[in-house]
């Protein structure tokens, strides 16, 4: 009888059920934290892209004796025509897909919660066109 027990290798049904239960608990505990970290990563990427746009605007402002890009054309073409390719390779995207569903590269001239960029020719303000809060509870438009 002892020899027959040594030949039985593998897991019992109870061991498998315990392992599945432990994995389920670990998944339930870690998934929300993983999702939060993913959202913060997207917000960080958007902040980096915003800094890139603001840097390009600062260099443009310096190169043009204190003038911001003109008000000719649409809000999108105002920046794209003067920034690309001289100051930046392309207009970067907002990556707030957890708030708006998709990345956006468009530029508006007023804050209307579209999830893209907003640019004001009056004072050269570039920001994120969002009335929503980030993962820390701060307004995205204040970045």
Notable traits:
143 residues; mainly alpha; 48% helix
Helix and strand layout, with pairings?
Blueprint: H1 2-6, H2 13-63, H3 75-83, H4 97-100, E1 107-108, E2 117-120, E3 125-128
Parallel strand pairs: 1-2
Antiparallel strand pairs: 2-3
What does this structure look like?
- This protein has 143 residues and is mostly helical.
- It has one domain.
- 48% of the residues lie in helices and 7% in strands.
- The chain contains four helices and three strands; from the N terminus they run ααααβββ.
- It has helices at residues 2-6, 13-63, 75-83, 97-100, and strands at 107-108, 117-120, 125-128.
- It has a three-stranded mixed beta sheet, covered by helices on one side.
- Strand 2 and strand 3 (125-128) form a beta hairpin.
- The longest helix is centred in the first third of the chain and has 51 residues, at 13-63.
- The chain is elongated.
- The model has no long low-confidence stretch (mean pLDDT 87).
Query: What is the radius of gyration computed over CA atoms, rounded to a whole number of angstroms?
Result: 25 Å
Order of helices and strands: HHHHEEE
Tell me roughly what share of residues is in helical segments.
40-55%
Report the total helices.
4
Largest sheet: 3 strands, mixed
Q: How many beta-strand elements?
A: 3
Instruction: Measure the end-to-end span.
Output: 73 Å
Kindly give the count of domains: 1
Mean pLDDT across every amino acid position = 87
Instruction: Give the strand order of the largest sheet, numbering strands 1, 2, ... along the chain.
Output: 1-2-3
